[in-house]
Amino acid sequence: MLRLMRKYRSPAASLGLILLLTSVVAACNATSSDSLGSAPPSGLSNQVESCALLFPQAKEIPVADYIHALEEKALMVYENQTYSYVSPEGGVAKNGPYATWFFEMFLNDVSTSYPSSFGSFKLGDNLLLAEDYRSYAAEVCSEHSNGVSPRGARIAFEKFMNQFTDWSGHASRWESFPYIETGAEIITAPSPAGLEHYTKYITGAGVVFVGGAAVPDASMLAARESVIYLTSARPEFRSILKENEVRISMFAADDTSVLPEYADEHEPGGFAMGMTDASMTANANWLCYPGNWDGGGNPVIHEMVHTINHVVFEQLNETYFYERVFDLAVKAIEDGVFGTAFSQKLGEGQTQGMSEYVGEYWAMAVEGYIMNRPGFKDTHDTREWIAENDPELLQLIQRYFPSTEWEYCPGYGDHS
């Protein structure tokens, strides 16, 4: 069944925002003493105590030089295409352990330098605050000491540098839901301020599932079951999903604009979650469950595969995956094994091409593998088909996802 599926596009990875970063760096180069903003009280240092204890060798440098250098280093990470695919037309399917690369950059930053005292600093049209710098540095040093997720540092960095925080779905704009063990029971959502739309809540496999009043309970239970199965071969993924506060915001409407975090987004099926996003989304009406016998793709499975890539694999520095997946995609497309008749909702001015096909190959194939229902996908719809037509991909899938039997949408054959 053909369906409009959204290619995962991290705000930090889009070409337009990379060009914006370039212009910000240029503005930083042009910064004069008039751009320093307000000064802090005399004698106040911006070095964070926890970082000073860990890295006493770090040197104070002038704030303008510090911010310029930090922007340059961030731009180098954003533009790293070691594992990305660049099409002959110039389209880019970004891929790689960006969470690992960013944290390595952050750690190098706080271990070697910190800015001279400042209260605020004018960078282009943005006012950078010393308190946001200290939050960023404290997150990096805390996460380094405790060995936890780099998500907090990445969010704090983007807030400090005013990068991508104008997007309504940026995690800095929303308080996270607590993780409550619910079992297979939907409870009243413990919704933070601004997220009262969500009245239903359930957890499983380290993931929070929330929905408004219009989202059927049965769809949330089906979504939970699919994610539990999806992560069953690698249960360690669940702790990483949990510590990165992965949430699925479910909706039962035409598109995501009914959700408070995404009022300006009009994605019909849903989209994945990156390291600094508030959540991923999925249309409950596109799921197969009792009372909604839908024989097509599953946006929870599809977008969760993307999310595992952009959260779990990035944090684990899973280079085994990144070194292989796009080569397999190109080969499957060139051999006519991977069907490219699907449509995607793309940004204004974008057209679907080779980079989009390559970027969707993994999630579409794993989605079909997990559902294992003939005809539910137009390509890679069953394990038997994948084994016969794309055997190298099957090996990569089974490195991360279960090979045990599971019946997707039991009862479908009696009601379809």
In short:
With 416 residues, the protein is of the alpha/beta class.
Number of beta strands: 13
- Whole-number radius of gyration? 22 Å
Helix fraction, binned, reads 40-55%
Total domain count = 2
Structure description:
Helix 5 runs antiparallel to helix 6. It is built from 15 helices and 13 strands. It folds into two domains: 158 residues, no CATH class; 242 residues, 3-Layer(aba) Sandwich (Collagenase (Catalytic Domain)), CATH 3.40.390. The protein is α/β, with parallel strands linked by helices. The chain starts with a strand and ends with a helix. The strands form five sheets. Strands 8-9-10-11-12 form a five-stranded mixed sheet.
Task: Describe this protein with a few key phrases.
single chain; 416 residues; Collagenase (Catalytic Domain); 2 domains; 5-stranded mixed sheet; two-stranded parallel sheet
Architecture blueprint of SSEs:
Blueprint: E1 4-5, H1 15-29, H2 49-54, E2 59-61, H3 63-78, E3 85-86, E4 92-93, H4 98-112, E5 113-115, E6 120-123, E7 126-129, H5 130-146, H6 151-160, E8 187-188, E9 200-204, E10 207-211, H7 217-230, H8 236-243, E11 247-251, E12 280-283, H9 299-316, H10 319-322, H11 325-334, E13 343-344, H12 354-371, H13 383-389, H14 391-400, H15 412-415
Parallel strand pairs: 1-13, 2-5, 10-11, 11-12
Antiparallel strand pairs: 3-4, 6-7, 8-9, 9-10
